[in-house]
Amino acid sequence: MYSPILNAIQEHINKGRISFHTPSHKGAEGSYLSFFADFLKYDLTEIPDTVGLFANSGPVYEAMELAAKAFGTAATLFSAGGCTHAIQAMLRLACKEGGKIIAGRNLHPAAVNAMALLDIDPVFIQPEMEGKCALGGRISPDAVERKLSKNKDAQVVYITSPDYFGIMSDIAAISGVAKKYGVPVIVDNAHGAHLLYAADNLHPIRLGAAMSADSSHKTLPVLTAGAWLQIADEKYKADALDAMRLFGSTSPSFPVLLSLDLCRAWLEEKGAEEFNKLKTRLESVKAALNETPFIKPEGLVDPYRIAFDASCLNRSDDEIYEFFHSRNIEPEFISRGAAVFIPSPFNTENEINTLAKAITELQSIQKAKGNSDVSYAAPHLPNKAMTIRQAVMAESEYVPIEKAKGRIAAAAEFICPPGFALTIPGEIIDDESVENLYRASIFNIKVVKSGAVKYN
Q1: pLDDT, tens digit (0-9, with 9 covering 90-100), for 189-222
Q2: pTM for this model (two decimals)
Q3: Residue 26 contacts by C-beta under 8 Å, 6 or more apart in sequence?
Q4: Which of 96, 196, 218, 290 has the highest count of CB atoms within 10 angstroms of its CB?
Q5: Residue burial 422-448, b: 16+ Cβ < 10 Å; e: rest
Q6: Whose CA is closest to 445, among 394, 395, 410?
Q7: 381: Cβ–Cβ under 8 A, 6 or more apart, which residues?
């Protein structure tokens, strides 16, 4: 397994130099961080032996070149600032200041925050619900076409796929539609980094997307905050490092960068094989789920995500958590009856079977009463009074929800996870907005002060 970052760090460690640079723990095993053991030695900074994250040479640059070759991209850039960093850079590359973007409403707060910083004006599309599952929806190609036909000045289409529940939009069809209008498709693929090696033709860059932001640590063996910006379109390559530099820390975590490099090497050597094994192991979980009354997402979904609607149990989130904890299982997410589990190749067969057994037994705690409301469908689209940036930068105040009707939102309010925008800065809060905020247990909201900004 070849890793240029690992080689550079190990060579530096072997030199035994006295550290008079950051970080100040000095890799000392006798410090209060001694429980990290040898890990501290690998926690270096940007020195001549390691160079840096945004340099055009050095071990990190070589690691990114190896990743691009392995993944079949024009460029793959490393982020130690999570998928947020990759999303920020991706939007900077794809959209000019003040530009218009067609975006699915089922997006992450990081995207809205980046739009505020970059003064991007979004035109939103509602996800469409399919079947009985109320966990989430897809952005349809037809909806994208309708928006593009009415917004000829749009510069890019922004899609989140897969979403938190593993629900995937048809990126190939959406890319085909966008191509007719001469605009690129970029994808928040935070929950789909594994699709590079885990499944044929499910990763966005294999389906016509110009770029994707991959939160590698979510579904691959990478330290928390490790992510990739995948670039398929050559025209974005030249400015990519500058875009990452614009938002990135000058003190990136080298252990995180190293884990991204080691993950690339692991994927090349064992990725496809290990995910095939996981797919086989998960058959027991899916078989168990099929024998329950729980509702699963339909259509195109991530084959490695376990998500279902268990609202028929009529049990509280705490009760469902307690059920799984009693079986020594920690779920990814339990809320309003929705359940999410993220298995990986590093879960043993015994662990997977334990989950399958628990899902089967979960039915036993069902109450006799009817269904509760689990819907995570994106709410309506309120009218817009000003841009996101105008609203975020305006003088603002907090008001109780009951006094918010008719006011302009100055901050985004989300159900996150999974990532549904209830209000976006610049939107006028109406009756339905108030109802949705109440249902999400949001009782105070930041609004633009009256007269703070002139708008059309």
Answers
A1: 999 999 999 877 899 999 999 999 999 999 999 9
A2: 0.94
A3: 19
A4: 196
A5: bbbbbbbbbeebbebbeebebeebbbb
A6: 410
A7: 105, 124, 126
